[in-house]
Amino acid sequence: MLKDILKILENDAHATTKQISTMTGAPSDEVAKAIKQAEKDRTILKYKTIINWEKVGDEQVWALIEVRVTPQRDVGFDSIAERIYRFPQARTVYLVSGTYDLLVLITGKTMHEVADFVAQKLAPIEGVQGTVTHFVLKRYKEDGEILEGKEEVKRQPVTL
Amino acid sequence: MSTKPTIKQQSLTSHRVNRIVPSGIRKFFDLLASIEGVISLGVGEPDFTTPWHIREAAIYSLEKGYTMYTSNLGMPELRQELSRYLKDNYNLEYNPDGELLITVGVSEALDLAMRAILDPGDEVIMPDPHYVSYDACVILAGGTPIMVPTNEENNFEISAADIEARITDKTKAILIGYPANPTGAVMSRDKLIQIAEVARRHKLLVISDEIYAKLVYGVEHTCLAALPEMKESTILLGGFSKTFAMTGWRIGYTAAPREITAAMTKIHQYTLLCAPIMGQVAAIEALKSGEASTAEMVEEYNRRRLVIVKGLNDIGLPCFEPRGAFYAFPSIKGTGMNSEEFAERLLIEEKVAVVPGVAFGQCGEGYVRCCYATSLVDIEEALSRMKRFVNKHKKES
Ligand SMILES: Cc1ncc(COP(=O)(O)O)c(C=O)c1O
What we know:
Chain A is of the alpha+beta class. Chain A is built from 5 helices and 6 strands. Classes of the chains: A alpha+beta, B alpha/beta.
């Protein structure tokens, strides 16, 4: 049941306990309890909204930074990753396989701001061997949602 | 002598065609098209577009130049995949060369099956209510449809005893379609076994329209052909329209004994030649890797199903719990209106389109069909409009 509840909430954080109860067939109070518990044990981290800021004229600069790192004794990549993810500018931080180690998504108000952050905060961290910055030119899809030109239902009037 | 008087007396169209009436669903869509802001629970088709990987495969095939006729039977690769699919799903062995035929939807498959097996006057037993094509196809093939009433108390399942009571020396076949349109009923395995027994005892063919086989919620679909000794007397019809949200591609199939497949192929070859190649290519992709998309759609349908069934019950339109397809079939008897009146007034007064149950047979009277293959937001809005409608008419009476 918990998985069913989570799936509904992942797609629509707005869904009410009552709605979820109907959609899963589980009693309201059980749904509420399960959600409470999931919030407590951080299965549910947060309820957020995907926003297309450009619509309100707010240009945001996004950049994906490849970071090559020298792993450290005992803690591997974790402590460097932590030093990076503690910065609020780092929106997403992944350890990845391949030619670099950490992938960091940075957002800022201007390209300058992002570049400064990389040059002054990220690159100088001890253990960081090098960075490659990719500025995002266009966001097509965000977390499963197509930002513009989403397909509409094109049902024709039919008679059967 | 002038021939004029004779021409005047004769109908321009055949008796056979004159015996069937246009689908009762049609009227409402003409009306619907003229009103704005309607929420339609009328159309019996998925609101999902075909999963992208399937569309992409079809686009690629066009780029490569797949624009020709195919084998009458359908593309060999598609029949091969279908054979594997039926084996994986039901442990049924159908030979792709001679026992499978790719058709233009289950619509054509129904027509082929009837024309292949019926002689004038032959009777075909079917449940009432039923999908609108069933009786029409039987009549067009020269046969006579024989109705077996089904009702809410028996979960709209057709009973073996009721079938048996209607068997005459003219009975040729039983035609069933579960999960059912319009009721959403699913047949239990036990009841199907009883029907299979009756069919075997009386040497009847069974045409089983299993187009909704994959759309079941919390129950198992039993494939009729997979019951002991039934493969030899079953014409299994299946399709892609509902399972993979592919209504516009027009692809379905028949799985049947060699002799019957050969007969259906003759008709198909002279009347359709082959199913469209683009749809067939898409169908191959669907069978190869469409399972995950279907599972996702089924999950979503199930959420909507629970919302609409509870919603209808809450507003005083008691609703039988549908276990398959994507239809809810609430009773409107409490409103004092008949189903056509209810549907028409609901459309005009509250702009919600549903289909009157009587469009699916006499036993559908007193019910309306609500298709929940539409967004949750629309379902919730439709329910609140229906609530207003029901309350208003409660006070009137
Ligand atoms: C029970 C049933 N059979 C057959 C069909 C026709 O399907 P197809 O698109 O494969 O022709 C439908 C479509 O609504 C249906 O509900």
